[in-house]
């Protein structure tokens, strides 16, 4: 199992994502200006502030040459995980529905939250039990998930709402407490909280590992 | 103080807030540098500011609102545009 | 050189030089300076760059020790943390810019201290902040400054991917007009690879990279930091500098890659006084000359004069020295990171800074005159004959009982939970943070290859105002106590001396006494000073700030798995009061709430006795004996117990026996006390080593406390509500 | 692709980007709520968006720039204003 972690100017959490993915497989960094996916089985678009988050979070990064490759990879069914800024990039790129708007509290907020696994059948959550609560940190200023209501209904019906904030824990004002969604085909997943920062009891919790383990299972190359 | 009573007619007002000349505009710089890679050439001098639109029953307050709240006079300039009467009227 | 009219002595005075200093410049040059030269001299000879009023004092500080890798004099100090790694760290102030524009002032303050860290080749791994404002409950301006400074720090640190892992904030009237915004950063690098800033190699090329140069902050940091705020007329206030963390994160990666690939000889950030100070200091340290052609400097605004280019304080720029053969590779790397490098000059054997505009020589000065020949002044300290600071307004009535006092203390802006601040900071990026804010007294970061760092930043202006010598010692001790509570042993110390106008005798006295206390405490703890910063002239129309030395300390712990926590953890654990703790109410937080004036002096204490208590606690934490350890600070013993109860979400019962004065026992403050909890057998073991009283037990959902008639019995939920008082400031 | 060569004349262009109707604008709400305390009454419907000003040698590119980059059509509306020739000319 080989993960590729994208690196844009201004990315922050790429080393953390690499460390986390490295616990279940091999993980390499992919430079935004290159076009070679280096034979990776799954791609992670990491958190941070690509291009300073200027204009709109994710708006500029989405056009990088490497993202063009990732878009093609995703259209071919490749596994793509977007975390925080990566989620924003995937929405901007049209790989995921919806958009992420400024938190209703208007502040960057960093908090440990519980995520409820709504869809345990995706390639990103198959190591989780239905309804399982994962303790994972969230830290962002623009994490309010938005999509039109009819689209949200359709997404719910199709199992595209993958994780929600546990009741009372959604600080950003997301529609229907949504923390992460997948595309219709189920091979692209984005979420605002940071599973890569929950892979070691020493620094918090280990619940986030489940996401990476699920991906390894899905790719059929788990080294766990 | 902006204490005058409104005329009962709501005015639509637009405020343009820009980074002052000479003040660094990191967003503008980043967008300008990104454009060529997206296939847009010949774009220069990109400046990014804020657009504020509101309805007010006494448009004479807006200048003071800009100075006190809407713009940060240390780093931003503002421009007020009166857009005419709003569709509704004030209560 | 051009024969344009030379500036007059009046212009020199307007730029901050004294008449005598101007005359000395003329002597050094053998002629009057032209505009470029005067601009450069006035900046390098400013208080901010030359430390005219503090250097002699700073030279008395202990700076050597077994762990010191780099002491004062470089961009940051560094200590050995084992495994071939060094931790670079430093604290800096951005007080005056933050008082003008808090968001950008604080943001660029973080940007500046981060550049100091990566300028020596260390990757920044953490930020801490130290803030002082006026009373936020009564002053709208203080709320505005607080809000702006906190979002500015978060904006910059978060965007850079450097966790902000700790800090401190206090609110007192003397900071109303002159807030303090200090930021500390830590970095990690291979000891062998840390770089210095000395320019070397005649014929080598000077490369400037990062942001383009604009008119921002012309005469800024140095003018601002060398005069009282009230003295600056509107037009003297420099253009506000806007921080660009995106540019800086590219600058950081590029700088580290340049060093990693061995492409550069020396590296220096551009801070206060811009190119002028960075180039001159590189030349001075390397004992060489430097030629700069200002026509090659990429500008943000056309038509900048040579002197403006030389003194611009545009942020996010770095300067490096490169061998000519490696220039192309260096430029290519700066292009990869989109921070476009430009060759702007070269290293010479002239011993002079020569400034050209194209072919034209527009300034020529000896480096030694610029950097070393600024006169240093002796202070004229005199203890004030009367109290300098008015008593604060009383908010707690005389008839309040102990329970009301406890709740009022917990809700005081100086004690209430800092969660609404630190939740705006990313404290976990980089996956090193083993103890986050409010989990322990010091932040704990794991190191590659095992072990970890504990880090704390502390200050207590009120205590230093009451007694500059013992007050400063108390601050240093508190910092070390915080480290002890996580199991860390101090390796080195940094400091920021925030004071008023040192030309006034009573401020000179505060400064002298504080530095004496700082030196004494660091010597006693074997925690040498490896760097720091001085911020003077912090005064508003109503007087000086409290004298505020801010101390940052970095320590090492062998096993992060056992890093201490401050929260009670185990029902039935014994609670002990540890250490030579002699509480007193004067200058305490309770005294402030009661509206009491500052005392004239604090009790003396036995620093070595405190040190051995710290060692006992540290060792017990390292052995895993304790469930919790927390040092007693603002609010005294009962507040410390309440904080441990809140952090662990578990109640406690404490009984202080027949203390002479219940209020002093419950709420008095002093260095050297700890509240620890653990299995009764473990506590008994600790008692063999250090002064210790078992005062209660952990359990339940309430806090019960009893001392000579005073009694408290309150539900955790009510404590938590009081402790959450700061949230309303950020609604 | 926006590959046409510029005319050699720089145009000054303003782009106004607004949050779409029906989408919560927390900044606008915060401003609206802060105004009464500052003594301003009768202000409603405050919306905060982005102001982008730039110079471009081929103004026909701007619509595409907006769609692709400057605005997110799912949540934002945009309006392009041509302000006339800029003072300088393209190289
Ligand atoms: N209070 C202090 N204690 C010890 N060293 C100090 C203190 N103040 C400044 N220094 C040292 O003096 C040198 C110059 O400081 P500064 O001008 O702030 O450097 P920079 O321009 O790199 O920010 C640094 O090495 C700094 O560590
Ligand atoms: Mg420096």
TrEMBL record, chain A:
<dbReference type="GO" id="GO:0005524">
    <property type="term" value="F:ATP binding"/>
</dbReference>
<keyword id="KW-0067">ATP-binding</keyword>
<dbReference type="InterPro" id="IPR029062">
    <property type="entry name" value="Class_I_gatase-like"/>
</dbReference>
<keyword id="KW-0658">Purine biosynthesis</keyword>
<dbReference type="GO" id="GO:0016787">
    <property type="term" value="F:hydrolase activity"/>
</dbReference>
<protein>
    <submittedName>
        <fullName>Unannotated protein</fullName>
    </submittedName>
</protein>
<keyword id="KW-0547">Nucleotide-binding</keyword>
<keyword id="KW-0378">Hydrolase</keyword>
<keyword id="KW-0963">Cytoplasm</keyword>
<keyword id="KW-0436">Ligase</keyword>
<dbReference type="Pfam" id="PF13507">
    <property type="entry name" value="GATase_5"/>
</dbReference>
<dbReference type="InterPro" id="IPR010075">
    <property type="entry name" value="PRibForGlyAmidine_synth_PurQ"/>
</dbReference>
<keyword id="KW-0315">Glutamine amidotransferase</keyword>
<dbReference type="GO" id="GO:0004642">
    <property type="term" value="F:phosphoribosylformylglycinamidine synthase activity"/>
</dbReference>
<dbReference type="GO" id="GO:0006189">
    <property type="term" value="P:'de novo' IMP biosynthetic process"/>
</dbReference>
UniProtKB/TrEMBL annotation, chains B, D:
<dbReference type="GO" id="GO:0005524">
    <property type="term" value="F:ATP binding"/>
</dbReference>
<dbReference type="GO" id="GO:0016874">
    <property type="term" value="F:ligase activity"/>
</dbReference>
<dbReference type="InterPro" id="IPR036604">
    <property type="entry name" value="PurS-like_sf"/>
</dbReference>
<keyword id="KW-0067">ATP-binding</keyword>
<keyword id="KW-0547">Nucleotide-binding</keyword>
<dbReference type="GO" id="GO:0006164">
    <property type="term" value="P:purine nucleotide biosynthetic process"/>
</dbReference>
<protein>
    <submittedName>
        <fullName>Unannotated protein</fullName>
    </submittedName>
</protein>
<dbReference type="InterPro" id="IPR003850">
    <property type="entry name" value="PurS"/>
</dbReference>
<dbReference type="Pfam" id="PF02700">
    <property type="entry name" value="PurS"/>
</dbReference>
<keyword id="KW-0658">Purine biosynthesis</keyword>
<keyword id="KW-0436">Ligase</keyword>
<keyword id="KW-0963">Cytoplasm</keyword>
Automatic annotation (TrEMBL), chain C:
<dbReference type="GO" id="GO:0046872">
    <property type="term" value="F:metal ion binding"/>
</dbReference>
<keyword id="KW-0436">Ligase</keyword>
<keyword id="KW-0658">Purine biosynthesis</keyword>
<dbReference type="InterPro" id="IPR016188">
    <property type="entry name" value="PurM-like_N"/>
</dbReference>
<dbReference type="InterPro" id="IPR010074">
    <property type="entry name" value="PRibForGlyAmidine_synth_PurL"/>
</dbReference>
<feature type="domain" description="PurM-like N-terminal">
    <location>
        <begin position="73"/>
        <end position="188"/>
    </location>
</feature>
<dbReference type="InterPro" id="IPR010918">
    <property type="entry name" value="PurM-like_C_dom"/>
</dbReference>
<dbReference type="InterPro" id="IPR036921">
    <property type="entry name" value="PurM-like_N_sf"/>
</dbReference>
<dbReference type="GO" id="GO:0005524">
    <property type="term" value="F:ATP binding"/>
</dbReference>
<dbReference type="GO" id="GO:0004642">
    <property type="term" value="F:phosphoribosylformylglycinamidine synthase activity"/>
</dbReference>
<dbReference type="InterPro" id="IPR041609">
    <property type="entry name" value="PurL_linker"/>
</dbReference>
<dbReference type="InterPro" id="IPR036676">
    <property type="entry name" value="PurM-like_C_sf"/>
</dbReference>
<feature type="domain" description="Phosphoribosylformylglycinamidine synthase linker">
    <location>
        <begin position="11"/>
        <end position="52"/>
    </location>
</feature>
<feature type="domain" description="PurM-like C-terminal">
    <location>
        <begin position="202"/>
        <end position="355"/>
    </location>
</feature>
<keyword id="KW-0963">Cytoplasm</keyword>
């Amino acid at each position: 199992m080989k993960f590729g972690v994208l690196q844009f100017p201004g990315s922050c959490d790429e080393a953390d994502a690499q460390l986390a993915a490295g616990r279940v497989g091999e993980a390499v960094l992919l430079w935004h200006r290159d076009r070679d996916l280096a034979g990776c089985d799954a791609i992670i678009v990491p958190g941070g502030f690509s291009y300073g988050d200027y204009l709109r979070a994710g708006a500029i990064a989405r056009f990088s040459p490497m993202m063009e490759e990732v878009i093609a990879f995703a259209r071919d069914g490749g596994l793509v995980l977007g975390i925080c800024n990566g989620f924003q990039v995937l929405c901007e790129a049209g790989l995921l529905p919806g958009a992420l708007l400024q938190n209703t509290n208007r502040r960057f907020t960093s908090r440990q939250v519980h995520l409820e696994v709504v869809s345990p059948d995706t390639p990103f959550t198959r190591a989780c039990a239905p309804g399982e609560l994962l303790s994972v940190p969230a830290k962002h200023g623009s994490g309010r998930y938005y999509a039109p209501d009819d689209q949200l209904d359709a997404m719910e019906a199709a199992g595209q709402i993958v994780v929600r904030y546990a009741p009372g824990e959604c600080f950003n004002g997301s529609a229907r407490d949504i923390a992460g969604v997948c595309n219709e085909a189920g091979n692209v997943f984005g979420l605002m909280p940071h599973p890569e920062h929950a892979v070691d009891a020493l620094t918090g919790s280990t619940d986030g590992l489940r996401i990476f383990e699920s991906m390894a299972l899905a790719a059929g190359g788990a080294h766990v | 103080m902006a204490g005058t009573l409104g005329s009962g007619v709501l005015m639509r007002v637009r405020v343009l807030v820009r980074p002052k000349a000479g003040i660094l505009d990191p967003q503008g710089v980043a967008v300008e540098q990104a454009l060529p890679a997206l296939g847009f050439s010949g774009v220069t001098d990109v400046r990014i500011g804020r657009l504020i639109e509101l309805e007010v029953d006494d448009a004479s307050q807006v200048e003071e609102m800009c100075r006190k709240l809407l713009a940060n006079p240390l780093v931003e300039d503002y421009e007020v545009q009166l857009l005419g009467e709003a569709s509704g009227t004030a209560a | 050189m051009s024969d344009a009219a030379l500036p007059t002595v009046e212009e020199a005075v307007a730029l901050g030089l004294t008449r005598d200093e101007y005359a000395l410049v003329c002597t050094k040059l053998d002629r009057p300076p032209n505009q470029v030269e005067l601009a450069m001299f006035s900046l390098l000879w400013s208080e901010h760059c030359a430390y005219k009023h503090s250097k002699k004092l700073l030279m008395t500080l202990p700076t050597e020790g077994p762990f010191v890798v780099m002491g004062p004099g470089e961009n940051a100090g560094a200590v050995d943390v084992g495994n071939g790694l060094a931790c670079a760290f430093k604290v800096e102030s951005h007080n005056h810019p933050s008082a003008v524009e808090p968001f950008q002032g604080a943001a660029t303050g973080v940007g500046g201290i981060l550049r100091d860290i990566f300028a020596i080749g260390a990757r920044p791994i953490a930020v801490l902040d130290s803030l002082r404002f006026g009373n936020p409950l009564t002053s709208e301006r203080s709320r505005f400054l607080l809000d702006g400074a906190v979002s500015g720090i978060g904006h910059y640190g978060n965007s850079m991917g450097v966790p902000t892992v700790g800090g401190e904030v206090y609110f007192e009237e003397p900071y109303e007009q002159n807030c303090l915004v200090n930021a500390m950063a830590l970095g990690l690098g291979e000891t062998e690879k840390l770089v210095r800033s000395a320019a070397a190699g005649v014929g080598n090329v000077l490369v400037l990279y990062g942001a383009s140069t604009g008119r921002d902050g012309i005469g800024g940091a140095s003018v601002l930091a060398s005069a009282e705020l009230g003295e600056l007329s509107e037009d003297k206030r420099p253009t506000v500098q806007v921080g660009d963390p995106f540019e800086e994160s590219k600058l950081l990666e590029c700088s580290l890659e340049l060093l990693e690939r061995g492409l550069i000889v020396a590296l220096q950030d551009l801070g206060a006084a811009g190119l002028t100070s960075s180039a001159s200091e590189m030349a001075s340290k390397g004992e060489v000359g430097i030629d700069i052609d200002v026509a090659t400097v990429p500008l943000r605004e056309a038509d900048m004069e040579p002197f403006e280019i030389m003194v611009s304080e545009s942020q996010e720029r770095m300067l490096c020295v490169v061998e000519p053969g490696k220039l192309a590779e260096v430029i290519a790397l700066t292009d990869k990171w989109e921070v476009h490098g430009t060759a702007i000059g070269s290293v010479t054997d002239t011993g002079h800074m020569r400034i050209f505009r194209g072919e034209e020589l527009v300034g020529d000065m000896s480096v030694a005159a610029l950097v070393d020949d600024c006169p240093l002044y002796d202070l004229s300290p005199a203890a004030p004959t009367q109290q300098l600071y008015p008593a604060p307004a009383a908010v707690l009535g005389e008839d309040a009982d102990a329970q009301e006092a406890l709740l009022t203390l917990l809700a005081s802006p100086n004690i209430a939970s800092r969660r609404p601040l630190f939740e705006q900071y990313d404290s976990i990026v980089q996956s090193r943070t083993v103890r986050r804010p409010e989990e322990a007294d010091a932040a704990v970061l794991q190191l590659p290859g095992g072990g970890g760092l504990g880090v704390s930043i502390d200050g207590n202006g009120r205590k230093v105002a009451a007694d500059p010598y013992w007050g400063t010692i108390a601050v240093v001790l508190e910092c070390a106590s915080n480290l002890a509570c996580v199991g860390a042993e101090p390796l080195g110390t940094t400091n920021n001396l925030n004071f008023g106008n040192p030309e006034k005798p009573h401020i000179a006295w505060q400064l002298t006494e504080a530095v004496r206390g700082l030196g004494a405490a660091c010597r006693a703890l074997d925690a040498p000073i490896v760097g720091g910063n001085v911020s003077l002239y912090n005064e508003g129309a109503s007087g000086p700030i409290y004298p505020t030395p801010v101390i940052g300390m970095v320590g090492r712990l062998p096993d992060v798995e056992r890093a201490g926590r401050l929260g009670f953890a185990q029902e039935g654990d014994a609670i002990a009061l540890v250490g030579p703790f002699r509480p007193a109410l004067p200058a305490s937080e309770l005294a402030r709430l009661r509206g009491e004036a500052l005392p004239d002096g604090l009790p003396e204490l036995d620093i070595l006795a405190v040190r051995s208590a710290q060692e006992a606690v540290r060792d017990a934490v390292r052995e895993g004996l304790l469930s919790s350890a927390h040092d007693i600070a603002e609010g005294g013993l009962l507040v410390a117990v309440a904080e441990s109860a809140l952090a662990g979400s578990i109640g406690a019962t404490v009984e202080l026996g027949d203390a002479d004065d219940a209020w002093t026992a419950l709420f008095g403050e002093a260095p050297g006390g700890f509240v620890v909890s653990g299995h009764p057998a473990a506590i008994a073991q600790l008692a063999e080593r250090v002064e210790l009283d078992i005062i209660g037990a952990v359990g339940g959902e309430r806090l019960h406390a009893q001392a000579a008639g005073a009694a408290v019995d309150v539900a955790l939920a009510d404590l938590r509500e009081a402790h959450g008082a700061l949230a309303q400031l950020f609604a």
